[in-house]
Amino acid sequence: MTLNLAITAFCIILITLYIIGNYQNFQDDNQQWLLSVLSYVSIFNSLFSIVLTVETFIKIFTEKQKVKNIINMIALVGSAVFCIFCTGTANIISYISGGIN
Questions:
Q1: Fewer Cβ in 10 A, N or C end of the chain?
Q2: What is the pTM (predicted TM-score) of this model?
Q3: How far apart are the first and last CA of the chain?
Q4: What DSSP designation does 88 have?
Q5: Which bin fits 25, alpha (ψ -120 to 50), beta or left (φ > 0)?
Q6: CA–CA separation, 51 vs 76, rounded Å?
Q7: Per-residue pLDDT reduced to its tens digit, 30-78
């Protein structure tokens, strides 16, 4: 769970760097690099979140700490949705900016 949240925070940092880079006119290669890193990290975190969500779903029925597991499951689903959004957005922006190179 901690690794998942750290990777999600890393995705947020990459998005922030991309936005700041657009504002400060970074070079196109740096922007493309940020988008590709964001895409790969988001794909990994989406798959990781889905696996952890299944594990947490199983824990809900087998362990006594149901409230903690439900909160973890909500955070994992939110992280997966956010990372899927990041992947789609990064790929769309990369495709649109493909005319730059």
A1: C
A2: 0.77
A3: 39
A4: H
A5: left
A6: 9
A7: 788 888 888 899 999 999 988 988 888 888 888 888 888 888 889 889 9
